[in-house]
Amino acid sequence: MSVQPGWYIDPADRDTRRYWDGEGWIGAPIPADATPPAGPPPPEPTPPSASAPPAGGTTAPGPPAAPGRPGQPPHPPGYAPQPGPGPWPGPGQPGPRPHGPGQPGPGPQGWGPPPQGWGPPLPGQPYPPWAGRPPEPRPHGLPLASFGARLVARLIDLGIVFLLNALVNGWFVWQYVQEISPLLREAARRVDAGDRSTEPLPPPGQRTDGLLVVILLIAVALWIAYEVPSMASRGQSFGKRVMNVRAVPVEADQPLGVGRALRRWSTLGLPTLLWFCCGFGLLLQLVDALSPLFDHPLRQALHDKRAQTVVVQVPRGTPQPTPQDRTDPPGDTP
């Protein structure tokens, strides 16, 4: 399994970070605590040709370069080569000369191909896995938000939406309760009296279904008005600002834009309209809310995958992003 390209801690120097392009290290290292660039480093200048000797003298031939990219190890960080069967030269004896895979080179008898694990893998063979747990991604140089912080932020937002519904939707909820109260009172009376009568319960009022649809539509509209504009301009609702987390596009640290924010919300919010179907919509929302626990390595919820966003932890004291006046900033891609 090959390691995905990205900035990782250099196993040879834990105080630096380098870019791994899937085959080898490229570019100059940067400090481990520095924010890496969004992509690979710029190419290094080509060194002068080593074939021309300096003026006034000659250079002694050096050992052959290791296979792979010039000056770079051929394997991912943390990979330790495993020596294969011998015999191999002892101290003071010359090493094996270069030769092709599977072909014995000129030298003492018994010198065969290099031991397993030396050099890049042969065609068709996978690269060795990471030694230990791979480093956690840091989108745009920021750590991923924990599930606990995301959950608390979502509960804060749902509490605010509930208060808005109590103010705007309260009258419709009261009318709905009045319509179903005869059914509830009769059911409670039978339970208290131990009545096992098979007579049907009184039906709810004729306006019950209509009131339920109106209540759900108002609830969805209030949720959209509360969350989508703030997420589009800043990537943060009130709950996310309290918990210092922010949603950003996967490809760039930019505002989400209206289109992306609406796609992100709809995956979680539209199932509210299915609450009247035996709570099926609530079940879908619960699955969406728990999905970051099972997604690796970016901890994306289903609504994050729909909008191609990630939720990152913002350090305290970081200035809030400036709201965008445009409805489709550069981060809002289809």
Automatic annotation (TrEMBL):
Membrane-spanning residues where? 155-174, 210-228, 268-287
Note the topology in the membrane.
Answer: Multi-pass membrane protein
GO cellular component terms given for this protein: plasma membrane
Q: Does the keyword Transmembrane apply?
A: yes
Alphabetically sorted, this entry's keywords are: Cell membrane, Membrane, Transmembrane, Transmembrane helix
- Every copy of the RDD domain together lies at 144-307
Per UniProt, the ranges with Basic and acidic residues bias are 11-21, 325-334
Mark out the compositionally biased spans (Low complexity).
27-36
**Region Disordered, residue ranges:** 1-135, 310-334
Composition-biased stretches (Pro residues): 37-51, 61-134
Subcellular location field: Cell membrane
Q: By its UniProt entry, which InterPro entries does this protein fall under?
A: Pra-immunoreactive, RDD
Which domain of life does the UniProt lineage start with?
Bacteria
**Name of the protein in question:** RDD family protein
Organism encoding this protein: Micromonospora mirobrigensis
Q: What is the lineage of its organism?
A: Bacteria, Bacillati, Actinomycetota, Actinomycetes, Micromonosporales
